[in-house]
Write a structure and sequence with these properties.
By secondary structure, the chain is mainly beta. It has one domain: Immunoglobulin-like. Helix content is about 15%, strand content about 45%. It contains one helix and eight strands, in the order αββββββββ.
């Protein structure tokens, strides 16, 4: 019993110290990250999660729900191509800002003029101030 009380007291003191140091405790999450060719619900979220796309796909979407963060929190979606000869190439990076504690995130990338190069790609969804909830979605172009 004494051990349980000590553990609870220690946890409370640790939280108090962190609060005094300006640290923020959060349960922020990136949920339901998905890739698709057509986002639903007024164009915001993917309902299916695809891992492969064709070279002539017009638009590729990456969507997710940003949960339990303050409004105004910024989330960056960065698209990468893994070129077998040149290594990792950043295609683009786009910042969205949460409007409320739970916000939908929808990133999209349009087909290049000559179509998508075949190979492996990745979208990274990173949230400012929350490095531990970064999500990576890998996909390929055939």
């Amino acid at each position: 019993m004494k051990k349980k009380i000590f553990t609870v007291a220690l946890a409370m003191m640790t939280m108090a110290v962190l609060a005094g140091c300006g640290a923020v405790y959060s349960t922020g999450e990136v949920l339901e990250a998905k890739m698709c060719v057509a986002a639903d619900r007024e164009g915001l979220l993917c309902t299916r999660d695809l891992a492969s796309f064709y070279a002539d796909t017009d638009v590729i979407y990456a969507t997710a729900i940003l949960a339990n963060v303050p409004s105004g929190t910024k989330a960056t979606g960065t698209w990468y191509y893994f070129d077998p000869e040149q290594g990792v190439t950043t295609i683009g990076s786009y910042i969205l800002e949460s409007e409320e504690i739970n916000s939908d995130l929808a990133y999209s990338l349009s087909k290049p003029t000559n179509g998508w190069p075949a190979g492996n790609y990745q979208v990274e969804i990173a949230v400012d101030g929350y490095p531990d909830i970064t999500v990576y979605k890998d996909f390929s172009i055939q």
